[in-house]
């Protein structure tokens, strides 16, 4: 089927483009799960508010009522967003799922704006309203120190340095990069971001102590084992998703219980598969967009460490994990993702400018300047100098072809001039005969 044709897919007509990688068959069953329930949600919400107003006695606790009022306001906003917000590009597991996370992202951005407008002391103490254990300065853990893989000084456990690094962040790194690979869908992009972040840790270890890690922790445990294995498993999953058939049936149209369970499980896979190619060097605009995406990925990663540092949150706190889960579920909401990332960075700058402004070591500055200069030189060559050179060569080639065509016209290799001369003489003789007859 040619590009741009239309193919019947259940009850929907879907355009097939050059990016399509699979065929989708849907019986079009619109079950209770997929129907809109706006009135039902409104009725339940109204009943809850009526109960609180008429049947529940309001406690005489200002702090408790303030917390409950804020939570209730957020829940009402989430109910509105889940039922009334615009659908995004994703339909699995359910469009309402992605509408919910869109509303959560808006609430989180508003919370960040509120924190940004507080003083440093008030902002840190405000975290006590979320968890009373917060608001206390915490010592940062240094992952460097003794970097011996095999330490003969500890005969009881010579590999204790390795076991000390095997904390909860190891599976978190693997799972995080597995999910990032499912989003980015490109091996080179994932590896570039992974390696670049390790260089950032090297460059900023003078600001945050937990950036100071052993060399094998950077390149073996992080890049190769955790990140690399997560990227590998992610690419394998993408390969399987691109080859599997997508045949969707209503749950009650499936006769067997095994088929029903399988259908429920596949509800958490994509509705269809679309392959996307980054092609960063195809044009200047795409190249700049890819650089911007890489920059935002790295900034969001750095914000994870700097936010918990300036807001005094321990690395294992549930809010740190919730933030990562929140970012995973943002989907294609690029605008709100960029706004959140920038706001987080501004909070870091306001709350601890001393740490941010610590001078970078001279050799680190030299390395980054060299890298930026190389990127600029390659960009100028690829999208300006190379294109000008190619256009000049093409123009020169066309001129040479045009001059060679003009050089062949006066020649007699093809006999065209002789034939023309013969016809001219014949026409001249015929004119003479007509003149004599007249």
TrEMBL record:
Residue stretches spanning the membrane: 32-54, 66-85, 97-117, 216-235, 287-306, 326-348, 360-381
Region Disordered, annotated ranges: 400-438
Pathway of action: Phospholipid metabolism; phosphatidylserine biosynthesis; Lipid metabolism
Subcellular location: Endoplasmic reticulum membrane
Catalytic activity: 1-hexadecanoyl-2-(9Z-octadecenoyl)-sn-glycero-3-phosphoethanolamine + L-serine = 1-hexadecanoyl-2-(9Z-octadecenoyl)-sn-glycero-3-phospho-L-serine + ethanolamine; 1-(1Z-octadecenyl)-2-(4Z,7Z,10Z,13Z,16Z,19Z-docosahexaenoyl)-sn-glycero-3-phosphoethanolamine + L-serine = 1-(1Z-octadecenyl)-2-(4Z,7Z,10Z,13Z,16Z,19Z-docosahexaenoyl)-sn-glycero-3-phospho-L-serine + ethanolamine; 1-hexadecanoyl-2-(4Z,7Z,10Z,13Z,16Z,19Z-docosahexaenoyl)-sn-glycero-3-phosphoethanolamine + L-serine = 1-hexadecanoyl-2-(4Z,7Z,10Z,13Z,16Z,19Z-docosahexaenoyl)-sn-glycero-3-phosphoserine + ethanolamine; 1-octadecanoyl-2-(4Z,7Z,10Z,13Z,16Z,19Z-docosahexaenoyl)-sn-glycero-3-phosphoethanolamine + L-serine = 1-octadecanoyl-2-(4Z,7Z,10Z,13Z,16Z,19Z-docosahexaenoyl)-sn-glycero-3-phosphoserine + ethanolamine
Biased amino acid composition, Basic and acidic residues: 400-411
Residue spans of biased composition, Polar residues class: 415-430
Domain of life: Eukaryota
Keyword entries, A-Z: Endoplasmic reticulum, Lipid biosynthesis, Lipid metabolism, Membrane, Phospholipid biosynthesis, Phospholipid metabolism, Transferase, Transmembrane, Transmembrane helix
Membrane topology: Multi-pass membrane protein
EC number(s) from the headed UniProt entry: 2.7.8.29
InterPro entries in alphabetical order: PSS
Pfam family, one: PSS
Family indicated by similarity: Belongs to the phosphatidyl serine synthase family.
PANTHER family in the cross-refs: PHOSPHATIDYLINOSITOL SYNTHASE, PHOSPHATIDYLSERINE SYNTHASE 2
Annotated function: Catalyzes a base-exchange reaction in which the polar head group of phosphatidylethanolamine (PE) is replaced by L-serine.
Full protein name: Phosphatidylserine synthase
């Amino acid at each position: 089927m040619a590009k741009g044709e239309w193919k019947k897919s259940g009850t929907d007509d879907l355009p097939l483009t050059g990016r399509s990688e699979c065929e989708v068959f849907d019986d079009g069953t619109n079950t209770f799960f997929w129907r809109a329930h706006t009135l039902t949600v409104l009725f339940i919400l109204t009943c809850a508010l009526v109960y609180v107003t008429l049947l529940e006695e309001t406690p005489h606790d200002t702090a408790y009522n303030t917390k409950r009022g804020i939570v209730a306001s957020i829940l009402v906003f989430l109910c509105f967003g889940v039922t009334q917000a615009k659908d995004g590009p994703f339909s699995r597991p359910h469009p309402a799922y992605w509408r919910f996370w869109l509303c959560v992202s808006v609430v989180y951005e508003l919370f960040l704006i509120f924190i940004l407008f507080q003083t440093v002391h008030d902002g840190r103490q405000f975290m006590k309203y979320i968890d009373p254990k917060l608001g206390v300065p915490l010592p940062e853990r240094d992952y460097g120190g003794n970097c011996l893989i095999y330490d003969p000084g500890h005969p009881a456990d010579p590999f204790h340095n390795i076991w000390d690094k095997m904390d909860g962040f190891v599976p978190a790194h693997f799972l995080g990069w597995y999910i990032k690979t499912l989003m980015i869908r490109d091996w080179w992009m994932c590896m570039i971001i992974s390696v670049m972040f390790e260089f950032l840790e090297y460059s900023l270890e003078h600001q945050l102590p937990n950036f100071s890690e052993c060399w094998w922790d950077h390149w073996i445990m992080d890049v190769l084992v955790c990140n690399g294995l997560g990227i590998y498993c992610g690419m394998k999953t993408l390969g399987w998703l691109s080859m599997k058939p997508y045949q969707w049936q209503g749950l009650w149209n499936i006769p067997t219980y095994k088929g029903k369970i399988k259908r429920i499980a596949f509800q958490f896979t994509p509705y269809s598969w679309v392959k996307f190619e980054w092609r960063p060097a195809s044009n200047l605009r795409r190249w700049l967009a890819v650089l911007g995406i890489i920059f935002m990925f790295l900034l969001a990663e750095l914000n994870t460490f700097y936010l918990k540092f300036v807001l005094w949150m321990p690395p294992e706190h549930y809010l740190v994990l919730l933030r990562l889960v929140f970012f995973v579920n943002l989907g294609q909401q690029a605008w709100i993702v960029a706004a959140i990332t920038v706001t987080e960075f501004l909070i870091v700058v306001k709350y601890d400018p001393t740490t941010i402004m610590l001078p970078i070591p001279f050799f680190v500055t030299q390395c980054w300047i060299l890298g930026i200069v190389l990127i600029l030189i390659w960009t100028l060559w690829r999208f300006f100098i190379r294109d000008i050179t190619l256009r000049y060569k093409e123009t020169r080639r066309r001129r040479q072809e045009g001059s060679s065509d003009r050089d062949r016209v006066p020649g007699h290799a093809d006999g065209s001039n002789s034939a023309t001369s013969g016809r001219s003489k014949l026409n001249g003789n015929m004119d003479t005969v007509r003149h004599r007859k007249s």
